[in-house]
Predict the structure.
Amino acid sequence: GVLPPGDVRDCLVALADTEPLMEQLFRYRFPPGTTLSGHSFGNLFLASMCAVAGDLNKAIKATSRILKVRGQVLPSTLVDTNLVAQYADGTEAKGETKIACSKMPIQRLSLEPSDCPPVPETLVAIREADLIILGPGSLYTSVLPNVLVTGIPTALATSGAVKVYVVNVMTEPGETDGYTAADHVRALINHGGPAIVDWVLVNTRFPTGGTLMRYREEGAWPTALDQRELQTLGLKVKEAPLLSINDMARHEPDKLAQAVLSLVI
């Protein structure tokens, strides 16, 4: 009965102006063999705060004060929804954890119920923004659900902000197998409309050696840059070496920030 707090927790921790120990505490997961095995302390904290404050939005605001968050963290909707994926063969899967289990390509994603109202403050934030960044993150289970909420696509399309989609460094097994950068963008446009993005930011540096082999064993591959296909979509493309230099194939935060800001400065 609690709205999923994981992404909200990560945003709060990322923007928190607190001691590193607090960040470790909010990310801490209870070990196997305990009653709370696998649960995150941050998720439990937010669930408890929801009960105390009354709803998730109030819980986020209260937690933001506790963590001294710089900025605002706003959910797209406060309605309890289910993700529904329709695959190329006509079959369906319901629920985030089940969607990535199928090996069939996802053809369409929807919300159930389909008429989830947005949080009014979120629409205001979109309208007043100078820069809107979509991604990086799981395409079908983290990014697209937001643009399926009633009113969000229109708010994005009519916003005067510079709108940037950050393409994932790697494909994700069960969600974007074999996807190129253009495939990611097409899925975004097909679900939210062509006016929700102006720029596509693509990484040009890929993992090698043991890191690449480990990802391959998991079924993940570097997201190929098909610039010609991207240009046919009528979008501006920025390429940059954004890979973090460690054993994880992720964006390097400072490089990503510089690349994004270069589009508006």
